[in-house]
Amino acid sequence: MTLSAIxxxxxLVYFVFVLGIGFMLRRYMKTSTDFFLSGRSxxxxxxxxxxxxxxxxxxxxxxxxxxxxxxGIATSHFYWVGAIPAMVFVGVFMMPFYYGSRARSVPEYxxxxxxxxxxxxxxxxxxxxxxxxxxxxxxxxxxxLQTLLGWDFNFSVLVSAVIVLIYIFLGGLTSAIYNEVLxxxxxxxxxxxxVFLGLKDxxxxxxxxxRLGVVATQHGFGSGAWSHSWQYMGSASSNPMGxxxxxxxxxxxxxxxxxxxxxxxxxxxxxxxxxxxxxxxxTPLIAAVPKMFFPFLVILPGMIAIALTYQAGGSxxxxxxxxxxxxxxxxxxxxxxxxxxxxxxxxxxxxxxLASFMSGMAGNVTAFNTVWTYDIYQxxxxxxxxxxxxxxxxxxxxxxxxxxxxAAAYVATRFNNIMDMLQLVFAFVNAPLFATFLLxxxxxxxxxxxxxxxxxxxxxxxxxxxxxxxxxxxxxxxKGGWFGATHIYPSEMAQNFWTAIFAWTTCFxxxxxxxxxxxxxxxxxxxxxxxxxxxxxxxxxxxxYQRPAILGMIVLLMTLAxxxxxx
Amino acid sequence: MGLxxxxxxxxxxxxxxxxxxxxxxxxxxxxxxxxxxxxxxxEWGAAxxxxxxxxxxxxxxxxxxxxxxxxxxxxxN
Lengths: 567, 77
Known about the structure:
- The complex is a heterodimer.
- By secondary structure, chain A is an all-alpha fold.
- Chain A has helices spanning about 5-25, 30-35, 45-55, 60-70, 75-80, 85-100, 105-115, 115-150, 155-200, 205-220, 245-265, 265-270, 275-295, 295-310, 330-340, 345-380, 385-415, 415-430, 435-440, 450-470, 490-515, 550-565; strands at about 470, 485-490.
- Chain A has a two-stranded parallel sheet.
- Chain A starts with a helix and ends with a helix.
- Chain B has one domain (about 5-75).
- The interface between A and B is medium-sized, with 37 and 29 residues.
């Protein structure tokens, strides 16, 4: 792929705006609350789009397109089952406690609700995880730009790191949120023509369906396996994901999805920056509306790419193969950009891709600097310093966090397995978390010891389950089976979902048992933290379209309709 | 927070739109073979331009409104 002057100009204009936003926001950063929580002053539509965009890193864009090619439209379960219901739940039921308790971070809520050790466990694992995720994201970007444009790996990594560093250093969370909104529009407007051109090339939706029928039958599935989301979910062997509906709904739809959208500070932080309780509650609901249509932007290109590879279209697009002969699914978006976009629009498309890399990185960095400063530095290293000191520490943490991410990106270039291992450990850490929050928010009897031991045993259960099982055709190692494979799952995805289910259940049961055996906290200490002891937020003053419960219902009905249409 | 986000978004897409429209008008038509014969720079550039201008107008209208309300607030005081 070669770039012309116009593409470079467009990219440059984007960088000027990104940095310009940072410089313009600089003068508003007076207190640590401004820096870490945007002074709780941002309207709901902006926090909503940022809520969506913080999660829309390039790994999501590239990964979802790859899954679209591998599994077809069933990948949309990651949105319609694996995201929307949890987003509605966090907005309607959980946000009153996050926003209402005035906690400044998710770990801090755990401190208020449970105790110091539960917060510490969550804060340290979360901080480590965000830094490495940001490093992995940087590594992926450097690698992609190297293969695609022949850019130097060091150059790509350092330039993107420095840009993200500057705009967060100057404008804190507000800067990250504003840039995420900018990136949201850029990604939507940059990829929309790609979907349009690809679909045109494949002969429209009906042409695409016919081609996907060929893909499915050649893989030995029913002809609709790539173009129906539910019809083939009855048993794991009849769909390319290798998952049956129960494991998918429970593992992905319940444990993993709720664990991520309801407890991950990376996204929750955006809602906490909202300017009122009702705006905070509307944040995930507003985000859910574009989210439910994202499959058409990121999964559809994958389906188009695989369809055209198996049955060529007019323009002759095909996916490239890897050295071992299998198709390189990760190249769906980059290859399609290069194939369909002429210079000019190509600049916009590549900028959108770069933007998604940087927003993923920035989301991690802002979450890290807050958790580091409030939950680790202020709690364990230096208490009671002036607010200016913590503001300064937040800026230092930004520099430090990005430096460690860059280091992690370089570690990944040398030891790819280390990154796989880390991601595995993160999965163990995250899986049980939602059980802790669910019991914490809705059962006043849950205690600190219960939460802490529940979390630990949940992580342990995840690790044990993983090491006792293996996905089909895999060898023991990072894929599991370290203690010998007592059960073989039809696919890696099925194994992941069931690991999550085991971890969650263990955490849930252990937390209840230990809580019942330990002394409960005084009820008056839990006001504002537990559902049954907290007044419902008043909504009389809001018009119907501002009420979270009504918005939530609308979002769920729209999602249901999409599921039925693409059944 | 002081800065209206619609200003930078509007300005950036206006610039992108203008660049693409101009480039689409002057560029060699043979490069549009890859976009299935459509001059996507011209067409999508126009769409981006409209989006950018609408964002700018929205930002301007709301800043005019908040100026008004500040003035009327002052009168009441």
